[in-house]
Amino acid sequence: DLRTLEAAQEFFNPSVEHLLDPMLMLNMEKAVESISICLDNHDPIVVYGDYDVDGTTAASLLHLFLQSAGGKSDFYIPDRITEGYGVSQKGIDYAAEIGAKLIITCDCGITAVEQTEYARQKGIDMIITDHHIPDAKVPDALAILNPKQSNCEYPNKNLCGAGVAFKLTQALCQARNLPPDQAIQLLDLAAIGTAADIVRVTGENRVIVGEGLKLIAQGKRPGIKALKKVAGITRDEITVSDVLFGLGPRINAVGRLGEATRAVHLMTANTQARAQELSAVLNSENEARKTVEAKIF
Predict the structure, then answer these.
(1) CB 3.0–4.6 Å: which of 215, 223, 271, 281 could bond 188 by disulfide?
(2) Is the pTM of this model over 0.85?
(3) Measured between alpha carbons, how far is residue 43 from residues 72, 99, 143, 161, 228 in Å?
């Protein structure tokens, strides 16, 4: 309900000034502190994302941010068929192999009680960033960032996984005296995750999507620029529909018909040539998905 002029102005003109303080989220201070120690010690960190649009955009933005902050960041996306949803033992074993001291989950992990214990046995700490409703028992992680935790007073309960990951990058900017834009420039990825996850586009989510769509339109990120091209999006102004029916399905398709890791490689690509190569793969996988769905129908 828009009952005041101020509320109406904020609704129709979303701005980064209206983003909430990330430190309001339960356990944010602990999460930032633990990540900062890893960054300072140059310890490897594995960003573990889910294989859907929200999970891959969340993992991409957090991985890119940690790299920009000088971190030794790697990412892991489980295989939908062989590993299934959530944190897998295979993913933890991978983190152990590369000598990671920390796994940060994106868009999953709130039910990973046994996996968190398994990681601890391997000498790896876990920070969980998720937005799904927690069970009665939550993992014994270093920190859990999830606005749906019963004792979390963060006002925006509608953040998606990419939204929670974005708030973590904002908090790290504050704690490490980094320019705020180091996080804000990742809103294109957060917006794709938010729009594709069909969460309410009100309040802070409206800022994330509004500002993110502007960044998608600018096309500065090679992977998003290439993805727009294969999706046939040529207009200067980008809409939520473009994300829902153009970008989102192509990102989702690679996780449904093979490795979702390819989506993260596209979104984190730093050359246009590599981005074009990967966007063609995402596009062809999406065409294959359509064929499979038509046969099923």
Answers:
(1) 215
(2) yes
(3) 6, 8, 18, 24, 35
